[in-house]
Amino acid sequence: MHHDDSRSETVTLRIHRFAPRPQRDRDRARGGSPFARKSSPFGDSGSRSARRTRGKQWVQDYQLEVRPDDTLLDCLLTIKREVDPTLAFRYSCGHGMCGSDAVAVNGTPTLLCKAKVRDWIQQLPGAAHDDEGFRRTGDVDDEAQPGTPKHPVDAPSGGTIELAPLPGFPVQRDLIADIDSMLEQITRLKPYLIADGTLATTVDGKVDVFEYLQKPEQLAQYETLTTCITCGVCEGACPVYAGGEAFIGPAALINQARFVNDSRDMATAQRLEAIDSADGIQACQSVRACSRECPVGIDVGEEIWQLIAKVKEREV
Ligand code: SF4
Ligand code: FES
């Protein structure tokens, strides 16, 4: 069937907005030291809610002429430029490389720049695809690519897409989540190669190559994990992490697995020890929602499962 993807349609973007209280009101409300922090083995993994900023929340609808192949980032940029310059969202690369634009679309964490209107538009139940390629509610492929909708809800005709900040993180403003807790947890786990410092030398003792050499099959053990863009989508999809439990979260565990699986890294024992705690890998309930949403296709749940096996092996 021929689809004319240039045809536009009016869509409602239903956006969950948030404006923080001015800083001086926040300082007054806090009433104590601005440096006070709750403590936990992973610093903030159990105190994400403590960072929550107070402010005003509301839901705002924007009607927009869009094409099926427009991304949700395209839509937000149009709103920002032509309709409402106060709308706040974060993005950088615009094509799935930087991981800065994760939000919840129709309740599912995904990247704005990878999400196409055609895949997320929702209409009244029972409607089908039209000839122009717009997807209708109830018409969701089981074999959908990562990032396609899985939670359609009722919506007025004309089509609605609901956008909210990434679950599991405090909101800074509108669609911008504060992901510092995730980045701090990753940093705490030493996200760099800890090699033994022995470089290949020539017969006369000079350094031959400033590289730690590795066979292709050794690289294959962790190469996929290096593609993680630290977007936090897996964390937002995880019912344990996004549910507010004390949990270091799947993104930090994937980062740790990347080095545990690297033959050049000499800190495996310390790395496994570091995550073996009640709010570390023990908090993972193997729900595997993290795998369904990863925009780069890492099977997050399976990787964590293998990491759990390594932690257990070391205990016997
Ligand atoms: S594992 Fe995937 S979903 Fe999780 S932070 Fe990395 S790229 Fe994002
Ligand atoms: S803007 Fe960089 S991943 Fe979407």
From TrEMBL:
EC top class, as a word? oxidoreductase
What pathway annotation does it carry?
Carbohydrate metabolism; tricarboxylic acid cycle
Entry cofactors: [3Fe-4S] cluster; [4Fe-4S] cluster; [2Fe-2S] cluster
**Under which EC number(s) is this enzyme classified?**
1.3.5.1
List the residue ranges of the region (Disordered).
1-56, 128-157
Enumerate composition-biased segments (Basic and acidic residues): 128-139
Domain 4Fe-4S ferredoxin-type: from-to ranges: 218-242
What keywords sit in the KW lines? Answer: 2Fe-2S, 3Fe-4S, 4Fe-4S, Iron, Iron-sulfur, Metal-binding, Oxidoreductase, Tricarboxylic acid cycle
Q: Which family does it belong to?
A: Belongs to the succinate dehydrogenase/fumarate reductase iron-sulfur protein family.
The name under which this protein is listed is succinate dehydrogenase
